[in-house]
Design a protein that fits this description.
39% helix, alpha+beta, Surface presentation of antigens (SPOA), four-stranded antiparallel beta sheet
Length: 159
């Protein structure tokens, strides 16, 4: 039983004759092959347009201009109107879903923050400062007492 996908074995002379014929056809078609002529023409045009290839030491991109103080101010001006979410956190607690469902109007939750302790000021959920509550014209406000450094931010995350 023979597989329909297999090629029946040929004699070595038939292979040699076929390869020789293919090589002769390729050599004869080289002069009249429109694809080969088009590819050669395209390579010549691309070489003329591109010019010499850049060396390994040369830069492919022009260096960026050094920003002037007015350019830096203009770049900063672009981001001034981007809104951010500021929130003040009194404290945190963990409760179970059962305790959550038992909450009603007037329920009191104990937080881990102490009275008089500075509150966390968050920008887009990132701690950036701490402050204290103030009342101005019957409205609550927050007075910033400390700006958090990046190293302090990491320590605060571990709470």
């Amino acid at each position: 039983m023979t597989d329909s996908n297999t090629v029946p074995p040929q004699e070595p002379d038939e292979w040699a004759d076929a390869l020789a014929e293919q090589a002769a056809d390729a050599a004869d078609a080289g002069d009249d092959d429109p694809w080969a002529a088009a590819l050669a023409e395209q390579e010549q045009v691309e070489a003329a347009v591109a010019g010499p290839a850049p060396s390994a030491g040369s830069s492919l991109f022009k260096p960026l201009p050094t920003p002037t103080p007015t350019a830096a101010a203009r770049e900063l001006e672009m981001i001034m109107d981007i809104p951010v979410k500021l929130s003040v956190e009194l404290g945190r607690t963990r409760i179970t879903i059962k305790q959550l469902l038992e909450l009603a109007q007037g329920s009191v939750l104990a937080l881990d923050g102490l009275a008089g302790e500075p509150m966390d000021i968050l920008i887009n959920s990132y701690l950036i400062a701490q402050g204290e509550v103030v009342v101005v014209d019957d409205k609550y406000g927050i007075r910033i007492t400390e700006i958090i450094t990046p190293s302090e931010r990491v320590q605060k995350l571990n709470r």
